[in-house]
Amino acid sequence: MRLVVPLQGVVQGRGGLIFGSLIPCALFYFLQLYLKRHRSPRNPPSPSASLQNLAEMNRTSSRSNLLSRGSIGPARISSLATSISKPNDSPYYIGLDKVSEDPYDRFGNPDGVIQLGLSENRLCFDLIEKWMLENLTDSIRGRDGDDLSISGIASYQPLDGTMELKMAMAGFMSHVIGGAVSFEPSQMVLTAGATPAIETLCFCLADHGNAFLVPTPYYPGFDRDMKWRTGVELIPVHCRSTDNFTLSISVLDQAFNQTRKRGTKIRGILLSNPANPVGNLLSREILCDLLDFAREKNIHIISDEIFAGSIYGNEEFVSIADVLDSEDFDKSRVHIVYGLSKDLSLPGFLVGVIYSLNDNVLVAARKLTRFSSISAPTQKLLVSMLSDARFIKEYMETNKKRIRNMRDLFVSGLEGLGIRCADSSAGLYCWANMSKLIPSYGEKGELELWDKLLNVAKINVTPGSACHCIEPGWFRCCFTTLDEEDIPLVMERIRKATDSRAS
Amino acid sequence: MTQTRYYLTRSPEPEKEKSRGGGGGTAMRVIVPLQGVVQGRGGLVLGSLIPCALFYFLQFYLKRNRDDTNDQNESNSPPQNPTPSSDQLTELPTLTRSLSRAFLSPRNPSGPVPIAARVSGIVKGADSPYYIGLRRVKEDPYDELDNPNGVIQLGLAENKLSLDLVKDWLAENASKAILGNGKELSISGIATYQPFDGSMEFKVAVAGFMSQVMEKDVSFNPSQIVLTAGANPAIEILSFCLADTGNAFLVPTPCYPGLDRDVKWRTGVEIIHVPCRSADNFNLSIAALDRSFNQAKTRGLKVRGIIISNPSNPVGSLLSRETLYSLLDFAREKNIHIVSNEILAGSTHENEEFISMAEIIEQEDIDRKRVHIVYGLSKYLSLPGFRVGVIYSFNDDVMAAAKKLTRFSAISAPSQRLLIAMLSDTRFIQTFITTNRERLQRMYVQLVAGLEKMGIKSIKSSGGFYCWADMSGLISSYSEKGEFELWDRLLNIGKLNVTPGSCCHCIERGWFRFCFATLTEKDIPVVMERIQKVLKPVN
What ipTM does the predicted assembly reach? Predict the structure, then answer.
């Protein structure tokens, strides 16, 4: 018996307790060690199949090579690179890839895939083009063609944006966001697009392993912006169709407590207002409640207001900056992200803004712009464009009118097919409820419909699951990349694809 | 099976009984709770499971506590003066805990909200002399006519020597380049979303330009190019792609002062310096590399690659073909990557031949995947504000990852347009290359001659905008302090911003980097005069 149960003997002797605990502990420790060792080599082989083939090739060639024994296949790359170098798996990105392979063109490629998945605004290109033709030469070369301005674009610029552009941007933001809010240029950091603005804030506010609360459905790109390089987690806070996807503090609180219990530190809330993909606005009351909540929990708020100027409803847009100004809240915990990609429809210019009243965050963000600064000619161009008050006013009014027009056409088209959209008043998209059309109520059914729309109907829409929506059957359709004439075709394609299911 | 198991668990009983009978058992039971379990049924199982569980929790507890202390150390790490925010950071856990207890009545808010510990170093980190000097120049820049007492910039690696050529070109072609000859619909090519890693047109133009700069038969494949908003993000992206947090890169020193920021700040990757010495003209030796590699290994650090700069910044020397091959051998032997920073490739100004890693891997098929080259266009073309960096790599996984990461640092479309036109103008580029090289050489020769007249020797530089000068005879004490004293005198008395060697992590004291491409020829006598003024009290 003693042979079978070695511990027993120890227990019976002296020091039984000590040995009886120590020995299992030691054994357990070695077991953990063993498991750990074995686990780590299992991760690397993930670099796609081609890489594995390569590993074999390399090995044989290097062996025959100069007998350098050391070389064991390709040098390892980081786990970040390994995980992101894989092909896209989110339907959002798969759809975008598909469109870029085979884009619809009314004349050139009438059977191509129609883009309804990218929130880009092409409705007012004529205005921008007209302005460029008239002003480009002057704005780059300077009014009198003096060469001082050329050295201005050629020499080293402050990495976080020139003061002129910040001032022009502050003026533009005040104009767009409206109300009595005035933006201070010195509290601004300019980045190469809103994407790095969000990432920079995430780096500044949270450490590896910390988390942000994000109301769902949310913009699919947040997963990349907030998580990839920062190691920060996003905790979904689910909003439902019964409330028209508006955020409630009680759900937020619940998510906060659950995450806390798991031992994860929450560092802030990430809002998008106007919401992407739903297109609704946060009311003044809910903004006040959010600020109270943030103070209570001592966390930050990032408010992504990139669609602030793309309002088409009658509801008034309230910026969190407005609420901060009017009431006595702690300003250092609020950070606003803005950009020119949506409201001025210049995504190719890559201009993003971090507006914060937290000095530490500003200092850090400014230093981090060495990795994402806006190139000088673009800054130069924008200074004159944004300072042209007449152009901006005309542009904003026309733009709103055209978005509203497209939205009405598109939504009534969908209604003709029996598809209802959530109430919305802003954005370049609508949030359509196709839950009646999905073959089974669940993510699988939703993705089946998405796949059919993409491959049969040749329409790229974004399924709700890509936006982490908790209810299946919702789709985001961006309509501002279309021409009016394309709408009947879109409706026809949807009808065909969904009919064939019924028959 | 069942029987043995039964025995295993059962068997303790009889013997246990005996041992209890052995006396002292009852007292033991109170003191030693486990004993009781062991004596009961399932003794072996429980008797092992419970200590294991306890031990597991102990480990868990220790791990947690260790993380916390690490956090605190990190947030306090810059030992300057513990500013308010670092205090808040350490206080935070207790603060929030008490808050949540008093949950329903949120009493007075708990003071400023903390920011991430990882950036608190960035926020407070005392700027090195390199950055202090740059700031001083910005506040009070020298101008021959307007501000003759201002600070002269010798600290910024920027090329202004051929700015006139670029200006003329821009004045003539800029708007046409952006709008594409005023044809319609061209606006959608710059306003819409573009591929983040640069348009194919631009890559083709860049590839052609690079071949032209190398003046040799090196051909660059446009599909192996990823473009970024400057060389800094190019290096950072490679650092993200090649190494995990806690891994390390070997970097021969002296290296350029911003490298720490590019490689380490956000990635959590470490740098291990491989000291090169003046006795070898600061040339890299594989033996030193090997030594550093082994030291890192014994410290438990995983080395993932080597970062070299060729032509070297700040020394200006070129790596020979043999060195490149032995580097490649070394990398193969250790199975690590090589990042070759060739941002100054176009700025060679002596007759020595520049050999790019690209040329070597053209022939060496097998090792292609471990070599990653970084170029920067803007610095060379006197267009630093344009911010264009290039990653050139044959590693498909790194390329795929880097392409996706360019969402955070893409080049804006109008600038791409402009540069496509400029780079495709081969006649202009050829003139630029030739003229720029001549001017660099002339400036270099004058600066070196001026320094030599004062007895300041420098390492022979064949590339770049720098002169790496030995002022060790002029420092008050052979230490970092002595070096900084001289730097401070040069900055405040001489009104010259130079970069001290310690900012470049040089292991020897008294070396300074002089960037001469921001000067005009007329400035050189002024610089010499000012150095003279600083040195006088010593002599």
Answer: 0.82
